[in-house]
Each structure stands twice: as C-alpha cells, then as structure tokens.
User: Fold this.
Amino acid sequence: MNRGASDVHGLAAPYALDALDAGERAEFAAHLAECEACRQDVADFRATAARLAASAARSVPASMKQRTLAAVDHVRQLPPGVPDSAAAPVSWRGARRRKVLPMTLAASLAAAASFAGLAAREHQEKQQLEQRARRSEQRLDAVGGVLAAPDARTVHGRAANGALTSVVVSDLRNSAVFTASGLPAPPTGKTYQLWLDHDGTMRPAGYIRRDGTVVLDGDTADAAAVGLTLEPAGGSPHPTTAPLLLMALPA
Assistant:
C-alpha cells in the first residue's frame, strides 16, 4: 500500500519495536535507507525502549495495587464523545495517525515489559553465578589453607561401604579436610553426614554427597575421631545409624 511521506515517517516507532507486519516492515526499511530523519527517530525510539526496560526492572511496591484500586472509585469518568455534524470531515490520514499512536504506545509498553523481564532474569542469573563462584572460591581457599599448613597431618581409612577416605588436620588452622573416593550414591531420601568425636559425643561436622573433598564443620582442636553415617536427607542432630567410618584423627 502506498502512503504519503508523513504516514511513512509515522512508522518509525513501531519499526523500532518490531511491531510492523512483514509488508510494512519491508516498505519502511526501503524508506529508511533514504531518510536520515527516520534513521535518527528509530535510534531514539530504541534507546528510549531500552531505558524504559531498565527503569521497569525494579520491584513494584506491594501497596501500589491497593492504592490504584482505591483511587479508581474517585476518578470522574468522561462522557462518550458525540460526533459534531458541523465539524470538518476527518481525513483518512488523520484517522490513520490516531490509530497508529495508540498501537505504538501499546507496542512500546509491551516491549518495555519484555525487555524488563529479560533484564531481570539476566541480572538474577548473573547474581546466582557470582554467588556460586564466590562459594567455590571460599571452599578452595579453606581446603588449600589446611593442605598447605606447616603442621598438616594425614590419616587414611576405608569405610564399611568400601569408600577410601583420608583426613588432613591442622592445629594451626583449627580445621580438617575430609576426602572420599568410591563413595556409593546414597539411597533416595538419605545423605552422608560427617561427625567429630568430642570426648565420646558425636557432633555434626557437615555432609559429603559424593566423591570429593570437604572442610569439616566445627572445632577440631580437641576432637579425637571423625565419623561417617548415612542419615535422612537434611541430616540429624545425633547419629541414627551404625557408623560407616570411625577414624581416629592423627595426633
């Protein structure tokens, strides 16, 4: 469909927001190659949409909905418009422009919401990745500190389920590192829990869910042994099953 110059210029906003059908988009793209003003308009609309998305990617106050619903009852409604027979006839071009503007606004809001949602998801995923990276770095630092300690001592053992284990203890770091190899996967609803023996009292010292290395929780300065049991998922305050491993810590 052929349009006047002003009608074509009016398509800059829906083009920037990808709100045109294939025919209109092709027609405007051809016009865009020859019109510097429209190219600038498209760039401005896209920048505005990006700013709208960034500003929308925030938490909405919980009270906003209540305030809005309460305000509706006090807003005076406008009477329906009645055409004036004496008024000049409305041109097709003017009607087209009035139709395009609400469509453009709706497309802008939809694009802003879409951009905001995408930005929020990306921000959340980035935060989760950063948190996991920080935790991994902290674990590596803790393990490395014990292994590299000048007073580090090591003892090896074998669990009742066949897993090979070792514990490295450092009094200077007041910490110990537990390593397991060949540890079978725990049954559904169960987890491997570690313990430290303090004068005959077994105190929770963390979990190991598969082969690997973990830093034991708790004070190892006066602990005599490390234990391993199979406990319900989430752990137990005291051992509820026979120990798979009870290994004296190196003196």
